[in-house]
Amino acid sequence: MNQAMTASSPWLDSPVRYGIVSRLLHWLMAALLLWQFAGMIVKELVGRSALTSFMVGSHKPLGTLLLVLAVVRVIWALSQWRNRPRHPRTLLGRAAGLGHAALYALMLYVPGVALLRAYGDDKPFAPWGIPLFAGNPAKVEWMIAPASATHGLLAWLFLAAIAGHVVMAVVHQRWLRDQTLSRMVGRL
Fold first, then answer.
1. Residue 102: count of CB within 10 angstroms of its CB
2. Residue 6 pairs with which residues in a beta bridge?
3. What angle (nearest 5°) sits at the alpha carbon of residue 32, between those of residues 96 and 95?
């Protein structure tokens, strides 16, 4: 397959838009993250209830899935690096690049450190009813401590970064009118 044919595939990224794979990963993760944060907000506002149990009961399985998707997303982004739309070489473009790097770091770290905590626990980890690893004979505190100290705090920071990401997408679309949002939601 020649390069011109590959670059025009709707599945792949191009300099003017993100392809189907990038869009699917982006929006699937957005929906799962929305559910995760909604569950934690309900937990904080409502406390123990049937609704809280239902929503928070999916937290570990979906967090595990989010980590898998984040790894796939990073690998895909790296494979498409030369094809992707570029940030402009301006102060705003550099800020966007740093913001995206922070989002990627948090989407890997937050569920990753929770998985490390689960691995260090004395209980087996079976997020979908399938045992991924057995519990340790005793808790391994050096594996548990980082998540205990940072998982929740950095998750809320991640939510703030996501909110900033959404706000900037709207700013780009409504006020700057530079079609930035269209690259992720527009026609292929």
1. 15
2. none
3. 5
What Rg value do the Cα atoms of the chain yield, rounded?
Answer: 19
Q: At what angle do helices 20-46 and 141-171 cross, to 10 degrees?
A: 110
42-58 as b/e: b if 16+ CB within 10 A:
bbeeeeeeeebeebbee
Q: Residue 80: CB partners within 8 Å, gap ≥ 6?
A: 12, 13, 19, 22
Residue 39 to residue 56: CA distance in whole angstroms: 5
d(CA 180, CA 188): 14
HSE on the CB side for 35, CA within 13 Å?
17
Cα–Cα distance between 16 and 140 in angstroms, integer? 48
pTM: 0.90
Report residue 8 as tokens.
């025009």
pLDDT tens-place string over residues 101-125: 999 999 999 999 999 999 999 999 9
Per-residue pLDDT reduced to its tens digit, 34-74:
999 999 999 999 999 999 999 999 999 999 999 999 999 99
Q: What is the Cα–Cα distance from 74 to 148, expressed in whole angstroms?
A: 25
**How many other CB atoms are there within 10 angstroms of residue 86's CB atom?**
9
Whole-number Å distance between alpha carbons of 105 and 126: 25
Structure token digits, residue 185: 């939601």
